[in-house]
Amino acid sequence: MSHIRCLWVCLGLIIAFLYFVRGLYPNACSKQQYVSYTRQVHKSKLVPYQEHSYWRGWQTKYRTEYFYQDEIAYRFEPKYSCCEGYEGSIYDCKPVCKNKCPTNGFCASPDQCSCKQGYGGSECQPICPLGCGKNEFCDLPSVCSCKSGYHGENCLPICPGGCGDHSFCSEPGKCECEPFYKTLGNGTDCRPVCSPECGPNSSCQEPNLCTCLEGYKDDGRGSCLPICQEACGPNSRCLKPGLCECEDGYAGDERGANCQPVCSSCPENGSCLSPSVCTCNPGYVMKDNRCEPHCEEDCSDYGHCVAPNRCECYPGHEVTKVDMKCAPMCTKGCPNGFCFSPEKCVCNFGYLMGPNNTCEPQCSLNCVHGQCTHPDTCSCDPGYRFKENSTHICEAICESGCKNGDCVAPNVCICHDGYQPNDRNPSTSVCKPQCAEGCEFGDCVAPHECHCWPDYEKINGVCKPQETTTQPTDTTSEPNTITVDLTTTTETDLTSPTEVLQVHHTNCTGGCMCWIEYDEEGTFNTAKCAKICVDPEDEPCLNLDNCHCDLPSGQLVCKEDSSEDSSSEETHYICKMQQLKKARSEAEVRAHESTKSSTKVMVILGSCAGIILGAAIAVIATKYYRRSASRRSYEADEAIYANDFE
């Protein structure tokens, strides 16, 4: 019941509002208009972050972030205007009468005139309630006046020039003859009347007595005919004595001879056949009082006949070479479509009109790293090929392959953790395994796994020539166990890791394929390889044209835009592979320094120290391996998450 009461209250408020608006705007009407407006919508999204624990390493977790986003919505709004039959401002809507109201009248409502007070009738003439006498008229409301031509209290007629013999003033300015007399023309003299009346070219000399005028003769049948000395010719008659005249509908010379039919106006390409009768010239036909050219073969739908048996196309059309018929013309052509009307193309099925007024192919699936070249047909960009079992997703091509790495752009291979490129040229480089402790006199066959050459053996994790003396050796090749010989380290062992650090190039990009953002506190926990600008699909990307190399630090310094303004904000990047090598090299140098400062006592206790150090390094390697695995898992999760949000 409460809902029903609420509904009735709302209806009452709406009706009251309508009456209030009607009071403010009389004769104004409203109608609902569908308009758009912008509103903010509360939305949420999942954002990944990294959490570190000693036993589990780095883990990816997600938190919910809320934000507002503008959204276009629609609603109905009332729009006020004068009601039908009214015009003007909505504050003063006045009725409109299509037919003009008479004098002393006004438009009271749409197409409805009303008279002013004291006036009435269809023409709003003044009203005299008591009426007016003979020869009087109602001049103003309740005021009578003599009609024009009358004067005096009795409103008698006035003849200004007076009346002649046998006549009297019967109406204003009009004299009337006595019985058996009548006036001739505009004269005031009264002439005798003959009954029956005298014929043409005769006059009544006395009442009921007719005689022919001079130059005329009686034909014996009561008619007086003019006398012409010469014959008048065809279509001509004797009009008056000695003067011929063409018959009605004919015209000739000044003597009334050579009479030809006359038409008031014959259409173009026509001639006068008989009085007021036109005919068209050969090759033309009469249509709607026009002589139009006639073509024996009908012109096409987009052409018309402009001369006998000659067709011409309408403007914006041209004759086709196939069937020689008129068709719409599009000067720029209609690739992938057809010309529907002058300068207007309609696209074929599978194509839509693009921003450049050209028909562009449409693909139901988005072409990733490719272009839609035909309906539902993608073509890969240069340097890309279709992904397996896909016809719309293109993947980058690395000419040398990308084993143990990810091909992120044409000839750009990012090696997996534990591998590094063997060549600074991206198109020829191959990811080879990396042994952090070095692999002199051996081959690095897997990350942190070194196999010694023949005649060499592993002694404390280092390949050395086989000796006859008994030394503590470690013949195992497990990748997670690293042993350092603290007594046999040479000067070459110190220079080798240092050379790994010297990978800087004049533009910082010679040997690096993965740049990550860097600040004073180090690399970001969520940092990933910045994309190098190759094509529009790489956005956001790193434009190397806006970057320069900081040689002392080996960092890549980039500005947000290409302006030379020194105040522009700069972003620092560091090579991910260089950072890894540098960290490992510093560990080796520290090991070398500790080895160099060892005493002979440590040499005697080498075996025990080697076992203890091996166990410690094994623990560190295990922890490092877990951290690397966690980071690889994070990068994979981050890539999946980025693809989901894109």
UniProtKB/TrEMBL annotation:
Keywords: Disulfide bond, Membrane, Signal, Transmembrane, Transmembrane helix. It comes from the Eukaryota. Residues 1-23 form the signal peptide. Gene3D superfamilies: Laminin. Residues 25-95 form the EMI domain. The keyword Disulfide bond applies. InterPro entries: EGF, EGF-like_domain, EMI_domain. The chain crosses the membrane at residues 601-622. SMART domains: EGF. The keyword Membrane applies. PANTHER family: EATER-RELATED, FI01909P-RELATED. This is Tenascin isoform X2. It comes from Drosophila suzukii. The gene is NimC1.
